[in-house]
């Protein structure tokens, strides 16, 4: 086996999923994560269809994911007086099985932390590829040499920036921002295990959602690109408050509660576009770093499938990254292609009153069921190999 020492950047979902398979095939795995510890709670994520379930089964975590799943949440679009205008069913928003991101990360960490080395509170500062490896400089830890480096560090990936180029060359802004608030384990927010209802208040270019499993509060709004510090929560909350001022229904009460909620997160709706593939030299990207499409509905499933394919191709090629990376690029470019076409902003928060009426009509029509079936087709559109039979493991 070649290239046995590997570094994975990111301990969210894609990173530990990749670590799980690489460790299973005998690689020596280190995971670096800039957060000081696992992040609890978080918004709910979901899996759809046969392919996602098959990977979870092969990871031997499907039963635990199902045990800790959230309940279905129907999103009711209502007017200022609370009258129902349309409903987005929980089967559409929550897939086959939905779980808090923090719970899923914990499951993956529990299955990898005993054999993989986790380095929390640190991040990659520089990469320098050599003839037989990569020299990695960290923000805090001493520099080390690895055979391969994997970027599983999200849509704003530092590994992608260091190995491929600036974010503006690979990330497309989609004209919207979103905010999740209260999505942590210590807010007193009880995750519903039974079917629940969220209420959505929509005006042109804006939607505010109260309740549900994704987060206690969610906001989305159309906007040109904004300049704000990503660590200035107070400034971001002011942006949300100013944007949603004057919206009726429950929104004034939501905005009043907003400063007291933990777990505030705001970011753009953006799409990653890696036209020349997800690999370069001894570096490969997986998850949102490679094929992210914010709130597009397929991110978590793409992450676990991508990790499965990347590790499996490496094992099948006996660690030869030139062979494995080419196969990974080929397989995942096809699988991620259609998932990257979804545009959640224009659907969830149309920019005109006519667009809102059209969306509400669509949600009440039979065509919405067709759209749901198309999502199932996208999530299953891959020939999932049985890699373990062909894998060459480290002895």
TrEMBL record:
The UniProt entry, under InterPro entries, shows:
FAD-bd, FAD/NAD-bd_sf, FAD_aromatic-hydroxylase
Domain of life, per the record? Bacteria
Q: Where are the transmembrane segments?
A: none
Residues forming the FAD-binding domain are 4-161
Which Pfam families would you find in this protein's record? FAD_binding_3
Q: Which GO terms describe its molecular function?
A: FAD binding
Q: What is this protein called?
A: 2-polyprenyl-6-methoxyphenol hydroxylase-like FAD-dependent oxidoreductase
Organism, scientific name: Nocardia mexicana
